[in-house]
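Dear colleague,

Thank you for sharing your sequence with our group. We've completed the structure prediction you requested, and as agreed, I am returning the results in plain text so they can be pasted directly into your records. Please verify that the sequence below matches your submission; if there's any discrepancy, let me know and we will rerun it promptly.
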Amino acid sequence: MCAFRATKLEYARCIVTAGRRWAWSLPGGADGQNTRDIVFLYYDENGGRALLPAPATLRNILLVMLSLAAGCVDAAGFLGFDEVFVANMTGNTVLLGIAIGQADSEAVLHAVTALAAFICGVAAGAIAVGWKQERDIWPKSVTLALAIEFAVLVGFAGAWLYTGAEPSGGITFLLISLSALAMGIQSSAVRRLGVPGVATTYITGTLTNLTETAIDWLRTIRSPKISGEDSEESPEPAPPSARGLLLPADVWLAYGTGAVVGGAAQLLWWPMAVLFPAIIVATVVFVATIRHRHDQTSG
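Please find the predicted structure tokens below.
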């Protein structure tokens, strides 16, 4: 099998050689965000071919899907657990401070439970993604961590569906723990991917990166290019590309969209608020697993 990467601008010819895989790529950003690679075109020995997303493109799509799930979980937790964030620990820390200042013991316990479970989830995710050092754009260990997150989300959904729309008492602490644990695992898994300025469970850093990149990009298109001997002797790093704005923007919008889904589900059909995130994460794990198997058979 052979493959090459193609863009809207140009196609490359690929030599079909049985049992081998040929690759051709265009230059892109070192971090994968600004890559111009859109698809891989695969050929097999019989002349069959199929277009598949390039690794960086597929990774970005899966990151957006994870952000969608996290936004839904955070909204469901906030509405269902008396205003507790289970993914956004910045906001949860603020809520903890407010609860302490107002001497609201129950709110303090809720916030502390979420924080502790999230930290445990990050630790569990770090163990899962760190057991084997891989340099792939989407390592198998990340898929493993997300599979664990899916299992936790299934337990979370099952417990909430069994309890009913308005959990109370000890079951509330269990639900907070499971949802925050899942979000901590996801945070660690996404961090292992090493995409600068992008996180799926907290958006402050992603929004900051998006704004800074946009300002840098606008500055480069408005400023004249430097030419001459000085620029040749000390070349400056490549300017930011407008394509680099897409991933942070998509992640941010997906997180907000997930919150819309979670909020609407609480009003219309509350089980969707807990089932939707599990379905999304399951899809991510399934697609990543298929890609791993495809790479093994075509490599």
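Summary note from our side: The longest strand covers residues 2-6.

Kind regards,
the structure core
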